[in-house]
Amino acid sequence: MILFPNAKINIGLRILRKREDGFHDIESVMFPVPVYDILELLPSDEFIFKQTGLQVDSAPGTNLCEKAFHLMKEKHGIPNVYMHLRKQIPMGAGLGGGSSDAAFVLKGLNDLFELNLETELLESYAAKLGSDCAFFVKNCPQIATGRGEVLTPFNLTLKGKFFVLLNPGIHVGTKEAYSGVVPQLPENFLEILLNAPIKNWKDTVVNDFETSVFHQFPAIGELKEKLYQLGAIYAAMSGSGSSVFGIFEKSVILPKELEEFSLYCGEL
Q: What Cα–Cα distance (Å) separates residue 98 from each residue in 19, 64, 130, 133, 244?
């Protein structure tokens, strides 16, 4: 079985309050985008996890894919598998690649061993693995609240728009991103703001991490500004960085200075 875990972007991300458990309550819309890792799952006499592609800085046994397998084995007694993850979505990029990989392991094992688990149960397992993981179970536009695991489907389409996703190769740690954020309750729900025309989003739909991250890594903020200079009707950083994206009314040709940072450039 070969699967293609995809990335996501955050369209708006507000940090509402710090929780007693140390996490933060957020409000964001997560949106799937066509940038992919590759995941292979095969029945095996012993559990084997192999990772190639982009280097992942994690100790043996701590990758979210491995944790997802062991969770399913504990809950449902599944047989062992050979698991090969080819990593292509950059880490520390605000794209949820690791979370997507873990969710696709859960979904893949459910299909491979015909467990017929309910979507809601898979989402609950995913939420145990990471804040963003549950989003990738349904893998459609959703409003994320709580620490990111409380999900509500949201009717948002960017069909016909031209989309550019850039990553400058900077790893932004979660601790770094939160260091300059002051949680606050907004005046309007994000859902209301996103129902307005996209051209209005520039002044209303914000990512609260941008101020902190752009201060620490000015090159990320410069990429966002260059997308607006190219004619984007909306541009923003995704998640806690470092990727930025732009939404355009028509196709654009990236200048050479941006080509090296491009993860995706095309229609959605």
A: 24, 7, 9, 8, 18
Q: The whole model's pTM is what?
A: 0.94
Active site residue 37: no
From 87, 132, 208, 226, active-site residue: 132
Which superfamily is assigned to 162-267 in CATH?
Answer: GHMP kinase, C-terminal domain (3.30.70.890)
Cite the residue boundaries of each domain of the chain with CATH code 3.30.230.10: 2-153
| CATH class held by domain 2-153 | alpha beta
Residue 159 known to be catalytic: no
Q: What is the pLDDT of residues 1-32, one digit of tens each?
A: 999 999 999 999 999 988 888 788 999 999 99
The answer for 61, left when phi > 0, alpha when psi is -120 to 50, beta otherwise, is left
